[in-house]
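Notebook p. 47: complex prediction with magnesium ion.
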Amino acid sequence: MTTAILRPDADGVAQAARLLAAGEVVAIPTETVYGLAGDARNAAAVARIYEAKGRPDFNPLIVHVGDTSAAEAIAVFDDAARQVAQALWPGPLTLVLPLRPGAGIASLVTAGLDSVAVRVPAHPAARAILRAFGGPLAVPSANVSGRISPTTAAHVLDPDGGLDGRIAAVVDAGPCEVGLESTILGWRNGRATLLRPGGVPVDRIEALIGPVDRGTDLAAPDAPGQLTSHYAPRASLRLNAETPRPGETFIAFGPGDLTLSPGADLAEAAARLFDVLRQADRLDRPIAVAPIPDTGLGLAINDRLRRAAAPR
Ligand code: TXA
Ligand code: MG
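Predicted complex, structure tokens below:
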């Protein structure tokens, strides 16, 4: 299969929507990372997503919709969920909620769970595609399973381990603004629980609904996809490195040849993280990364770095 490269204009959006309606899978930009979209109501399309990504097991996927009322048609919201959705959607936040019976979502999307992950993305191209398609899309990150999430169309098509030739099309809208996956929030025994740190800092959620349990144990993952080693470059990774050792590629936070952010800005570091990891990985040497403050978006950055560094 030849993978078409589409522009995020009216023609490209219409063509992406047509392919999706025909049960094909299409990589689309979101504000977090590029995602691999397929019709969430069509089991064959969802199977194609898993197949293209080479997912070893059926991890549940996030359903992307255009607005909160479309989300409420799929998931059962309580007051707290509605409050968070109202304040932070569209945006880099995913809510795991009870699946609404009869919602029409293919069971492969939820991997048979009675909960469903939903998100309203903010990226204008993602929103235009959702509007033109007119239904819910299942959209995991558009990387081969176990590899770093793509933040450009070139990452999606990377001849070295990308999806070129495995998907119908990619809509190229340039680099993603946030650069990290969405924050995933769920409720366990009635308590709001952080299932994955991400693009929305957890303190913004706490300002709305009070304390959020952050006890996600990386070794005993709750979100089935939260494998410890997940965002993996090929090279080994050493964290909290003040200085490089001989032979190491050093990723700085602050001034440096290769840096997440010359001005030590966490939002910029998040946006550049996966691209810089890819650049470092191409040099084929062990990688050392400078310490990143564990506050705000730094929580999500450190989460991804720990996974990238985990033994595999
Ligand atoms: O920013 C994002 O969220 C990106 C863009 C494309 O939207 N998507 C993304 O999807 O990161 P993915 O499939 O790479 O990660 C989805 C995570 C997985 O860890 C999965 O296990 C978890 O969401 N998840 C999905 N449904 C769930 C559910 N019902 N219960 C618990 N975890 C769930
Ligand atoms: Mg992923």
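Notes: The two ends are 31 Å apart (CA to CA). The first helix runs from residue 10 to 21.
Next step: compare against the earlier run before touching the bench.
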